[in-house]
Amino acid sequence: ETGVTQTPRHLVMGMTNKKSLKCEQHLGHNAMYWYKQSAKKPLELMFVYSLEERVENNSVPSRFSPECPNSSHLFLHLHTLQPEDSALYLCASRPDSSYQETQYFGPGTRLLVL
Amino acid sequence: ILNVEQSPQSLHVQEGDSTNFTCSFPSSNFYALHWYRWETAKSPEALFVMTLNGDEKKKGRISATLNTKEGYSYLYIKGSQPEDSATYLCATILGNQFYFGTGTSLTVIP
Q1: Nearest to B33 by CA among B63, B55, B59, B18
Q2: Which tens digits make up the pLDDT trace of B65-110?
Q3: CB atoms B100 and A4 under 8 Å
Q4: What pLDDT score does B2 carry?
Q5: What would the pLDDT profile of B9-67 be if each residue is shown by its tens digit?
Q6: Are strands B45-50 and B56-59 parallel, antiparallel or unpaired?
Q7: Mind telling me how many Å the CA of B36 is from chain A's nearest CA?
């Protein structure tokens, strides 16, 4: 176990639904990430938070809305998603933003949009 | 955007065989190269963080080398075991962003 948890592990939602993904770490890390993993594609960075402030946003559609209420919790709010948003969503954390610090990943949420 | 490539995409080896695969990355603006191991239904786990040209790191039967001048890293597994079956990811970092390759999927056949 890496110390990063994600809930739910699996989610099926319709295009008109609103749902949220949750990520939690109690490792004392200051940076948290959301990634999207689609089949046959590299891990795609969506959002980065450092010390609870968003520092990177890779032009992700507004139907994905992140929230970082404190350094231990990260949410990804989903609304009016499209079928092509079906993917594995991974959360990760790092102690700080030093390039030598590795990431600790959660197990992911497998999302299916119908 | 940094283009990180890994080859081969997949690999099947017999138990006991040694194997290696490659990660290629842009040699300019290099800070660090991260290797991860990702078993099915589990979280990706860090293997190595490499920063210096000529670096060589080892963890049990797994080792990695780094050439920052030509922009590549090799991952070696000696005497592969079924439990080594996983996808091996590499990533380079720029600022706060990690740029991942698509991974090499290794299957070790008992």
Answers
A1: B55
A2: 999 999 999 999 999 999 999 999 999 998 888 999 999 999 999 9
A3: no
A4: 82
A5: 999 999 999 999 999 999 988 999 999 999 998 999 999 999 999 999 999 999 999 99
A6: unpaired
A7: 9
Tokens for B95, please give them: 């600022």
Residue B2 token pair: 């940094």
Secondary structure (3-state) at B93: strand
Angle in degrees, CA B68, B106, A34, rounded to 5: 65
Contact: A108, B102; criterion CB under 8 Å: no
- Is the CB of A105 less than 8 angstroms away from the CB of B89? no
A50 neighbourhood in chain B, CB within 8 Å: 96
